[in-house]
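Q: Can I see a sequence and its folded structure?
A: Here is a first one.
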Amino acid sequence: MSTFWSIWISVIVLGTVFGCWWLLYATRKSQTSDTETDRTMGHSFDGIEEYDNPLPKWWFYLFLATCIFALGYLALYPGLGNFKGLLGWTSTNQWEAEVQQADAKYGELYAEFGETPVEELAENDDAMKMGQRLFANNCATCHGSAGRGSLGFPNLTDDDWLYGGDPDSILTTLHEGRNGNMPAMGTMPNMTSEQVDQVVNFVLSYSGREKDAEAAEKGEEVFAQACVACHGDDGKGNQDLGAPNLTDDTWLYGSTYDWIKETVVNGRQNQMPAQGGRLTDDQIQILAGYVYSLAN
């Protein structure tokens, strides 16, 4: 933060505190007596009138105490521009301290589960309770609290996996992340609108849903040029590349003619962020066990 903005913020904050202090004294001195009177302010609503009486002393002193507390807080903690406070507190320092406390408290338990194979963890109730919390904090935003995914985010509870659902594949995904890339027009960037229609119909023909049988027949040749490199001759995909199976009823972005056409024309880019570095190896081991348990 620049010096100008630091001073600007400090002036506003301190001005507000001292302004409240002044307002309390100014309004109290303007009243002629600390005793109650029958004089009103001229305000009346529903038979209730506002009297011109001073604040009760306990209330007045409570407001003053609030101002004093505010000044003390601003002296000890950050709140005045670049001034870091006498205690040197930061949210980062507090977070690191809490992480250290958690590691000291749960590290041994994490380490015990970290040495356990994924398949065994999936059958351990205590490990799965921990795994569920790790999943809720790190994965549920994309995959949903139940792991069923949504448009563009894979369902983790079925047996259809882009990169494999065995323990080693899940661990690799969690540690390193995944970057999915479906290029527009596949490997045939000069694909015409007619050829797009043909290849979409061909893909739909895998499940007998093509709109135009003649176009689907011609689309096989387009598929061979634009799609086979990733999805294979039979359209069943390639887990090494993260290329999905086009012959089943599991679709990441929808399986209608319009959805598939949009995928072909514009391509798709997906990223699964790496958890390595964010979570410890032991935590990832437990999380992998939980993810594995969702589909097994």
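Q: Show me another, different protein.
A: A second, unrelated one:
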Amino acid sequence: MTGFGYAEGKGNLGVYRVYVKSVNHRFLEIALRLPRELSLWEEKINEAVRQYASRGKIELRVDFEPCEGAFTVTVHTALAQAYLEALRKLSCSLSLPFEPKIEWLIEIGNIVEVQEDTEVWLEEWERFSPVLHNALQAFFAYRVEEGKKLCADLQRQLAEAEAKVQDIEARSERVREYYFEKLLKRVREIVPQEKIDEALLLQEVLFYTDRSDIHEEIVRLRAHIARVRNLLTRDGVVGRELEFVLQEMHREVNTIGAKSPDSEISSLVVDMKTLLERMREQVHNVE
């Protein structure tokens, strides 16, 4: 499910701006974009995100603007001099011109070092955490509104599916009459002069109607529809259960399509499959 949240706040070490956004995904996938200084909070941030979402591809970005005095920088002058002398000797031995630049020494590494106090950053978490949760709460509220819209659309489609089940049931009641007329016409074509034993013909009709009876499938479909309607009004995590029920509905509709010879029922089955597939795609976004 899509969502977005933002919050900002100030701690002892600087200003934090937290952005949270998500796109649809069947499972929970969290991608963090943190400044290097905040990497020790990675697991805590992941844990916080899991409190607000169980599905979706979620990206959380933190922009950090440090205040003056937030970092202590140490310059290793003696090490820089040693590197510089080594480079000077190398240029002489190779007969190359030597014009030292400060950028060379910085690129070598270990010359300029940022001193990190882990304890200070652990304490700073207590000031950053409210900012993070404010962003996640805004993100959650956004997803709740999206969820309400999705729920309304699923309920509308569920009502449409229920109407199609009623149409299938009404049409299925004519199957016996359909077989009787079809067999009678066929027999008259083959043996037009013979008297037709309608009792025997009725037995044949019963044989075919038993094979094509879809009453049980319709009963199960109605039960699944009631279950989906109940899940859509329930609080909590229901997405995976909805997926399972819609999958079972799809199975029943497939069986109806395989058993029924009626062209109108076949057309309704195609409509039901399309409708259920669309619902299943949407349910992938439900928590």
